[in-house]
Amino acid sequence: MLSILLFSFIVQSAPVTAPTKPLSLKEKLQARMAESPKASASTLFFDFPVTYNARVSHWINHFQNKGRNWFHRWIEKSTKYMPPIQRELKAAGLPQDLAFMVMIESGFEPNAISHADAVGPWQFIQPTGERYGLQVKWWVDERRDLMKATGAAIRYMRDLYAEFGSWYLVAASYNMGENGLRRQIQKHKTRDFWELSKLGALPQETMDYVPKILAVMMITKSPSLYGFRDIAELEPLSYDVVMVPGGTDLNKLADHLGITHKSMKDLNAELLVGYIPETVRSYPVRVPFGAAKAAGTFIAKNESSWR
Question: What average pLDDT does the segment 48-65 reach?
Answer without folding.
Answer: 96
